[in-house]
Amino acid sequence: MLKPFATALALLLPATLTAQPAPERVGLVDRVLDQHILPGFDDLAKATSQLAMVAAQNCSPDNEDLREAYGRAFDAWVRVSHLRFGPSEVQNRAFALAFWPDPRNKTPKALARLLADQDVALLAPEEYTELSIAARGFYALEYLLYEPQLQQPAAYACALVQAGSADIARLSAAINADWADYADLMRAPHADGPYKTNAEATQELFKALLTGLQFTTDMRLGRPLGTFDRPRPKRAEARRSQRSTRHIALAVDELEELALMLAREGSGLQAELAVAFEDTHQAIDAIDSPDLSSVATPFGWLQADIVRLNLHSRITEELMPPLGEELGVPAGFNALDGD
User: Fold this and answer.
1) Phi/psi zone of residue 39: left (φ > 0), alpha (ψ -120 to 50 degrees), beta?
2) 31-187 sits in which CATH class?
């Protein structure tokens, strides 16, 4: 699914790029870490800790305090979901937090088995972490809070909400704690570290931007859009909690922030990126359904497709190659496998 994008991206990047970032970009990695990455994961840790505390007090799926805490925590995850490297990837933490897309419906099947078996021992933290990733994280919790068929028996479903919320909080806290040391590795590249040069650390940030753009374009938008003749609104992310369009908006917010940081301050490219992202935000605001159900209508489909086209054609295909050139990304760089 991802390889065509990787191939296209390699072709888009100019063959004349140099291997090192320009000297004036020396402070770039520090800036992105301090203003974008570290605050985002700190917010995630705090929001998920609050979610776990609220769930421990009242785990009823119709409790508004719980649903609001879940929404704030999910917001915080979406804001850092493009940063899928370093601590997020240790022990598959990111997948445990966010197993989606789920084309085979593994999550509801896994939850249904747990609810049928009602094994209390599996709710202990050390046992819960051994469960299938499909039964953990934000998307599993969405089913438990918003899908009536997965809310019985009520006592065990409630206990699953508590165990799942606590698991999300532990994962988020671990990622946040590990970023302190990992940030140092990005700030001071060396021969024995994951980044041997500042150019490699910069390349990691550019890769996060590119893959974030792709995920929002192909998954958050592409899956529910399907084709004009056959839209698939039920494939929308987090549609049960009416969060589909919100996730697109949050992701684009964060991708814009990262893109503008990576572009040279005051450059023409930075200005072009700002205009392109603003147009994309306006297109998102025009979508008139929070769960993307409107893509089932011709007009609604076209509204959402404008967002997809902005992200793919205008931002990714037109503006990412010159940004890569500005950053000194090597020719033939593959955003998806780290080449």
Assistant:
1) alpha
2) mainly alpha
